[in-house]
Specification:
With 236 residues, the protein is mainly beta. It has one domain: Sandwich (Jelly Rolls), CATH 2.60.120. Helices cover 14% and strands 40% of the residues. The chain has three helices and 16 strands. Strands 1, 3, 4, 6, 10, 12, 13, 14 and 16 form a nine-stranded antiparallel sheet that branches. It has a seven-stranded antiparallel sheet with strand order 2-5-15-7-8-9-11. A hairpin with a 2-residue loop joins strand 3 and strand 4. The longest helix is centred in the N-terminal third of the chain and has 15 residues. The protein is globular. The two termini are 22 Å apart.
Length: 236
């Protein structure tokens, strides 16, 4: 009990003080009362093919093709979620969608992403490297450390720091690992607000999300990725 309380206190402390956040962090492992580990029965394909997603217990292997998503079997409103992910190749692109409305997935063709939802991005550092090689410029409208943004018809008031056009919540610090290494995400989505912790540090988020209920989706976007230990606890 003492250990659990100390983790909660540490999270509150690091959330309120950016300076302390850089010195201390806490990993929420998704164990304890109310936490459920998601497996194959808890997901449904949306617009992939037979081998886009493969399940091996708590490990989910994604080929990244065709571009699209796999959704949870049920919809969620208030929840907290932990998951681990790693890209297998440099410049990999993926993410997790929160609160995707059912109509945003209806008839979604191969090669398309949801028409609504809040994306919690999982982008490899090599993506920014390739962008600079291709354009000769540093990436300004995205980062590779945990951006959060509304897609399609969804709306959100992103927390600062913001992307140049104000649509994305940029991470306040860089804590993501590169391809071949596991990253730990803790996502808290409650009452229209989404917050992301990367490898134990709170980095980005947003409020006034609409809609604030729907499916969770795993994204395939052209590059192989692994997810594991996806655990969810529903909140009142």
């Amino acid at each position: 009990m003492i250990k659990k309380i100390s983790v909660v206190v540490l999270l509150i402390f690091t959330t309120l003080t950016g300076q302390a956040e850089e010195k201390k962090h806490a990993i929420i492992d998704g164990t304890g009362p109310g936490w459920v580990t998601l497996g194959e029965k808890d997901f449904a394909d949306v617009n992939g093919v037979e081998d886009t997603w493969q399940f091996e217990g708590a490990l989910i292997k994604g080929t990244g093709v065709p571009i699209g998503v796999m959704r949870t079997a049920k919809q969620y409103k208030n929840l907290e979620m932990v998951l681990e992910w790693k890209h297998l190749k440099a410049a990999g692109n993926s993410g997790v969608f929160v609160w995707v409305a059912p109509e945003a997935l209806e008839g979604l063709p191969n090669g398309s992403l949801p028409r609504s939802g809040i994306e919690v991005q999982a982008l490899d550092h090599g993506y920014a490297t390739n962008f600079k090689k291709r354009t000769g410029k540093d990436a300004e409208w995205f980062t590779t450390n945990g951006d959060i943004f509304a897609v399609g018809k969804s709306t959100m008031k992103p927390f600062p720091p913001l992307s140049p056009n104000g649509s994305r919540s940029f991470p306040r610090a860089n804590h993501s690992n590169g391809h071949g290494e596991w990253n730990h995400y803790y996502v808290r989505a409650i009452n229209g607000e989404v917050r992301l912790w990367v490898n134990g540090y709170e980095v980005s988020g947003g409020s006034e999300c609409k809609p604030s209920q729907g499916y969770l989706c795993l994204e395939a976007e052209g590059s192989p990725i692994h997810f594991r230990n996806i655990r969810i606890r529903e909140l009142p």
